Amino acid sequence: MPTIEELRKTRLEKLEKIKHAGLLAYPAQTQRTHSIAEALDVFSKLVKAKKRVVLAGRIRAQRGHGGATFLDIDDGSGKIQVIIKQDKIGEKGYQFFLDVFDIADFVEIKGTLFTTQRGEKTIQAEDYKMLSKALLPLPEKWHGLQDVEERLRKRYLDVIFNPEVKDMIQKRTIFWASMREFLIKKGFLEVETPVFETTSGGADARPFTTHHNAMDLEVYLRISMGELWQKRLMVAGFEKTFEIGRQFRNEGMDAEHLQDYTQMEFYWAYADYEQGMKLAEEMYKYVAKKTFGTLKFKIKGFDIDLGKKWEKYDYVSMISKYTKVNVLEASLQEMEKALNELHIDYDKKGFNRTRAMDNLWKFCRKKISGPGFLINTPIEVSPLAKRSEKNDKMAQRFQIILAGSENGNGYSELNDPIDQESRFVEQQKLRDAGDPEAQMHDKDYVEALEHGMPPTCGFGVSERLFSFLMDKPGRDCQIFPLMRPKQ
Predict the structure, then answer these.
(1) Which of 408, 409, 410, 407 minimizes the C-alpha distance to 468?
(2) Strand partners, 53
(3) Which CATH number is correct for 159-310+370-477, 3.60.15.10, 3.50.50.60, 1.10.3720.10, 3.30.930.10?
(4) How far from chain centre, in Å, is Cα 187?
(5) What is the mean pLDDT of residues 310-337?
(6) % helix / strand / coil in the chain, to the nearest 5?
(7) Which residue, 214, 259, 274, 257, is CA-closest to 411?
(8) pLDDT tens, 21-44?
C-alpha cells in the first residue's frame, strides 16, 4: 500500500498534467446553478423540464464500469451520484478525467438529471471542470480518524466523516443565536467591552498576560464578559445590556474547564437576584427548546428535565449534609482536615478560607442533579455580590446547578462603593499572600460606583452549558480547540 508521501507525489504529477493542458487546477469561479440540496428538492421539476444544471462538490467515491465512471459528490448540503460516460464527453475528455481526478478533489459537473433503474438520483455529465485538486487523500472511508487527538487537530476531516460533529457545530450556532434572540426580545442591548484590561476583574480566575507594544503596557486578557464594564454602563444609565464573546482563563484543563471560550453576561438595572433567577430559568428553557427541540436530557448519568420545578439548594446546608462541616463556623484548619479526610485534592498555594469553602462545595455539587439554584453563598466567596439584607454574612447570589456542576452564576450586584472598596482590599491581601485567583483592586471601578449605580442583577453563563446539554466534554464541543503543535 503506497505511503502518504507517495500518494502526494502522484497527485502532484496529476497537477502538472492539468497545468500542461492549459487548465486551472484552482479556478476562482464556478458556474454552479444549484446546491445539491436545492437540486434534489426540485429534482422532478428539473428532470421534467430536461433542464441543464451545474452542480459542484467534493468527490467522495469513484467507481468504474466499462466506458462509464460513477462518482458521489458532496457539497456540504447533500450528496448526489454522477455518471461520466465516454460516449457523452468523448474519448479524450473521458481519459483526461481518469488521468487527473481523484477522490477528495472538488469538481464541477454540467449535465441533466435523471433517475437510474435502481432509483438513484443522478446527474449525467456533459462536461466537467476541476475546482480544486486535493494533494492529500481523505482518510480511509470506513475507519476515518480513530485517534481522538488527531480528530480534534484535523477537525475539518472529522466533520467530513462524522455527521454528528457537523450537527454539533450547527447546534452550537443555534444555541448562541437563540440566547441572543431571547435577550433582545426582552429588551436587552447587545454591547462590546474591552478584551484587553489593565486590571483583570469580574471573576475569581487567573488571567493571561500579554504586552501592548504601542502603549508599552502589560495587559490582561479578560476573565469575564466585561462585568465591570457593563456595570459602568448601568452607572451611565443603560437599563439592560448583554455581551456574548470570548474570554480567557489561564487555569487547569479538564472536561468542564477551558481556557479560551465563549461566555454570555447580562446586566439588568432595577432588578435583583430573585428576578434574575426567573429570567435565567426562562432563558434556559427557551434556548434548550430552540437548539435541541426538548427540555429532557441525559447528562453525565443524570436524567435532567428542565421543564420540572427547579429546586433551591442552600450552600451551607448542602456542604454540612455531605461533609459534616459548617463552613460559617469552622476554622481553616478544620476545613482543611475535612478536605484531607475526604481525599479531595486542592492547590495549597495561597490556600485560605475562600479556597477551602470552594473545594468543599465542589465536592458536594457532584452529587446534585438539578435543575436548581444554589443560594445563600457566604460573602467570602462572592466579592462582587450584594450582601443579604437578612444576614450580612450571606450574598444575594445564585448559581444554576445541572448534573453536578455550576452552569450559570448571577447575583444582585454590589453597588455600595465603600463596601466594594473594602472587599477589593481584602481580595488584594489574598492575592498578595499567593492566591492567583483573588480579584485585583480596581480603583477606577470603585470611582464609577461612587457616581451611583442603581440596584442591578448580573448573570453569566459559558459554553459549558452547551457541552452539558450535548453530554460531551467541553473541548469536544469547540470547533477548533487549542492543540499542542506537532513535534
Answers:
(1) 407
(2) 111
(3) 3.30.930.10
(4) 25
(5) 95
(6) 35, 25, 40
(7) 274
(8) 999 999 999 999 999 999 999 999
Specify the 3-state DSSP secondary structure of 354.
helix
486's CB contacts (< 8 A; 6+ apart) are 153
Q: Which residues contact 310 (CB under 8 A, 6 or more apart)?
A: 281, 370, 371, 372, 373
Residues 22-38, buried b or exposed e (16+ Cβ, 10 A)?
Answer: eeebeeeeeebebbbeb
Whole-number Å distance between alpha carbons of 195 and 185: 26
What number is the average pLDDT over the span 12-25? 98
One-letter amino acid of 189:
L
pLDDT digits 0-9 by tens, 243-271: 999 999 998 888 888 999 999 999 999 99
Amino acid at the residue 375: I
Residue 109 has which C-alpha cell? 459537473
CATH of 4-138, one of 2.40.50.140, 2.40.50.90, 1.20.120.450, 2.40.10.10: 2.40.50.140
**Unique residue bearing C-alpha cell 452549558:** 465
DSSP assignment of 406-433: EEEEEEEBP--HHHHHHHHHHHHHHHHT
How far apart CA 219 and CA 199 sit, in angstroms, is 8
Strand 372-375 and strand 397-402: the pairing is antiparallel
Domain boundaries, the chain: 4-138, 159-310+370-477
Given its phi and psi angles, is residue 113 left (phi above 0), alpha (psi -120 to 50 degrees) or beta? beta
Query: In this predicted structure, what is the pLDDT of residue 142?
Result: 44
Sheet holding 240-248, edge to edge: 189-190, 240-248, 260-269, 456-462, 405-412, 397-402, 372-375, 311-314
